[in-house]
Amino acid sequence: MSSQISIQKRQSKTTRWLLAPGIIWMSLFLVVPILMIVYVSFWTQTTFNISPDPTLASWKQFFSSDTYTGSLWTTVRIWLIVLACTFVVGYPTALFVGLFVKSKTLSTVLLVICVIPFWTSFLIRVLAWRPMLGKEGAINIVLLKLGIIQQPIEVLLFTELSVIIGMTQIYCVFMVGPIAFMLSRIDRNIIEAARDLGAGFGRIFWKIIFPLSLPGVVVGAIFVSVMVLGEFATSGALSGRKVNLLGNIIVTQVGSLKWAMASVVGVILTVVMGIVIAGFLRIVDLKREL
Amino acid sequence: MESRILKPALGLYVALFVLFLYGPFVVLTIISFQQGPEGGPQFPIIEWSTYWYRHIFGLTPPSRIAPLPFGEALLRSLVLAFMTMVVSTVLGVMSAQAFRRKFKGSGVVFYLIVLGMMVPGVLTGLGTSLLANNVIGIERHWYTTAFATHVAYTFPFAFLVMLAILNRFDASVEEASWSLGVDPWTTFRKVTFPLIFPGVLSAMLFAFTLSLDEFPRTLFASGRDQTLPLAIYGTFSVEIHPNIFAFGVLTTLFSFALLSVYGLLMAMSVRRARKMAMQEDIA
Amino acid sequence: MDTSVFRLDGVTKRYGDLVALDNASLEAGANEYISFLGPSGSGKTTLLRVIAGFEAPEAGRVFFNGRDITNLPAHERGIGFVFQNFALFPHLTVIQNVGFGLTHGKSGLSAAEIERRSLEMIELVGLSGMEGRGVDQISGGQRQRVALARTLTMHPKLVLLDEPLGALDANLRSRMRTELRAIRERLGVTFVHVTGSENEALAMGDRVVVLDRGRIIQTGTPGEVYDSPASPDVAHFLNRFNLFDGNLSGGRFNGVFGSVPVPRSVRSDRDVYAVRYDRMRALPVSADAAGPAIKARFVASEYLGSSMMNFFEAEDGHVIEMEHHLSLGTPQTFEARQDYLLTWNPEQAIVFGREASR
């Protein structure tokens, strides 16, 4: 009888079988590819070929080129600006949807309204900003008609500004969702109690509402950061190739079969990414917030 | 809550926010009705017409503008999204099911899975194509390498959806089934699965949508045959015509159709969920 | 030869640092009705779940039908389980619920035979005519019957019931009590019933098992447990004793009521003097009590149908309860906030002490 497998052992065997396919898939098609990027970044690149002889050449080339290091700073700058913009644009909306709207139906409807644009292809959504921002675009037409401006604004399209506007619009919903979710979980009685004690809205906001919504802000910030840092399509389509993010460099390098350089940029992007996500995860434990 | 000033002000803000969100789509819809084939993708509208919609379906007389090469790409994207949906939902359900029991290393496994949605697509795409192209030396295809990256991307979403559903699942119905002599696998098929089906539908929807519109991973990891986002990207480099906008409007409408089907399926299974909720009320 | 239906041998179960079951041993014969009584957190539900196979014990063995089933998964045990929340399958009808085990288990029966047996069992629990309904279209009491029928169609030799009446209202509860007993006697299976209610445990069990902090502290017939609780804790759970602290020495118990001779006592880790509620008598405060006496103020009374409960408060704040069975005549009436002298026959008291004479 003692030769029987115990229930615990049987259960942990089931757990292993359930997890194995997912773990294998993620290791093979996520972890190994990322390790490949690190590996290939030390390969030797010649004009038409690449060979696995280890060298630091591509790394030296990256750090000695203003174009490459410049794109690193552009990426960080655009990321910070877009992150701030999505937060500023998204937080009041989340506040309204998550806290001020009392009817559950209305808040669901508002959230659905926010999600609907995602049913249009991402690339077409990016493209739609061109007739919006252009010299003869919708914004200039409206502003001219209203008499607010006399001359069309030209800096709207094919500049860093257009990239930032486009990215903010595309990604701000990822900020709204998690924050609204955290706000909707706040116990209204706490706010009522604080009000009964004579606290004004500003005080209640900074002492209660904002701290309680912080996990949502962090989750939203992780979403936005992941997407903005890896971007290349929006910057490609709306900047007229003036804004070069790390992602754009990778695309052009792969396009000209410079795999080693693409890998170097990939490793740098991974490192930036890792620092950003680790930083955010220090503020909030993602697993506990679920 | 200072509702006299603050609430209306915020309401107005949300209205502006929605305008900001929908502005480009409105402009896109307007321009899709631009006159053709001379009218370009900008204002002013020379004359309202459905020319570009007809152009998509090849119903216009031949002109210097070639029809969008989207037919096969769309088919590939749909097949790829379907494959991705099935595999990532199965993986998501399995992993979330495993997470119902505490086990050693659950934190590591959790982050390994969630990593899939945290690593930018450019990196997964680049890494996979390096692995296939340079290290192993196999050809890349949308249905092999790109498919693998798609699942690695959508599986975490399916996993999180299922985790949230199973966290709220009352395990006593499963135990009841075991105590009636029904083995765990049959119990899963006959009890657990029917009851978590609304969640499975959400996971499937997530996976399908994400895969259908996936671009950076596919750009690197697929081979010659383009998926729909790649075909659209291809038009970026050449001159843009309003036909791409008309196409955007059409795909959005198609998405709505799909969403309605989902809503219908959901409404059907919500009846079951409500039964479940009523039973929990007694407890 | 092992004639018991099930036997527990030193079963221990921990949740982290918390010991849910501490070396529990127990034996149950065929055709018995056993109640597990204990406060919440006493481990009674855990014990039931270990027997069912939903939880695995860290140490000890579980035997069923003379076979070691410690390592057998729940679905191979053939032990029925009725849940507090009934755990009906919400997506199935009444008859599908009742026939679930036969349909999806290893019964190998034809669909017609399964339907016949299910209908038979539905009739037994008095639900004929409801078989086609969804389980959300029936009342709480009817769900309870479906849960029972679903378990009984499998003809288990042992049925575990986890607070099966807890979700029902008072009226239904007392009716289901009688019905549970009747159904069990008809089928001749062993029932193990977990409850937090001492009334239910005493009324329903052929045998009562009292648990506290993961340990079995007394096993016996309801009469044995009621008349001679094994420890102050058992006396406390039974909710029928006034308990007084004090100390036992030299054959006398010294408490707030004075010093009383103790003819016999039960060994325990502390000194406690217990008097059953219905052994108490109240005298005017000026009266001269022959035996032990304690002055207390009348607080309130509660009419319980067959008896009257009177609540008094002693000077130290201790609440003393006195029960009067109405079959013994009309009860005394007391004036609110008046002092009375409470007394009892020391022969009828139960005394626990470190210095025991037994």
From TrEMBL, chain A:
Q: What is this protein called?
A: ABC transporter permease
Q: Could you mention a single GO BP entry for this protein?
A: transmembrane transport
SUPFAM superfamilies to which the protein is assigned, alphabetical: MetI-like
The entry sums up its family as follows: Belongs to the binding-protein-dependent transport system permease family. CysTW subfamily.
Origin species: Paragemmobacter kunshanensis
From the UniProt annotation, give the residues forming the signal peptide. none
Where, if anywhere, are coiled coils annotated?
Answer: none
Bilayer-spanning residue ranges: 17-42, 78-101, 108-128, 161-183, 204-229, 259-284
TrEMBL record, chain B:
Domain ABC transmembrane type-1 residue range list: 74-262
Location of this chain's protein in the cell: Cell membrane
Q: Write out the GO biological process terms.
A: transmembrane transport
Residue spans crossing the bilayer: 12-33, 73-96, 108-131, 151-170, 191-212, 244-268
| Membrane-related topology note | Multi-pass membrane protein
- Entry GO CC: plasma membrane
* Primary residence: membrane
Keywords assigned by UniProt, alphabetized = Cell membrane, Membrane, Transmembrane, Transmembrane helix, Transport
Q: Which family does it belong to?
A: Belongs to the binding-protein-dependent transport system permease family. CysTW subfamily.
Q: What is this protein called?
A: ABC transporter permease
TrEMBL record, chain C:
Q: Kindly indicate whether the keyword Cell cycle belongs to this entry.
A: no
The keyword Transport is assigned to this record: yes
| Pfam families membership | ABC_tran
Keyword set, alphabetical order: ATP-binding, Nucleotide-binding, Transport
Q: Which residues form the ABC transporter domain?
A: 6-238
What would be an example GO MF term here?
ATP binding
What's a single GO BP term from this record? Answer: quaternary ammonium group transport
Under the heading InterPro entries, the entry gives: AAA+_ATPase (IPR003593), ABC_SmlMolc_Importer (IPR050093), ABC_transporter-like_ATP-bd (IPR003439), ABC_transporter-like_CS (IPR017871), P-loop_NTPase (IPR027417)
Q: What is this protein called?
A: ABC transporter ATP-binding protein
What organism does the record attribute this protein to? Paragemmobacter kunshanensis
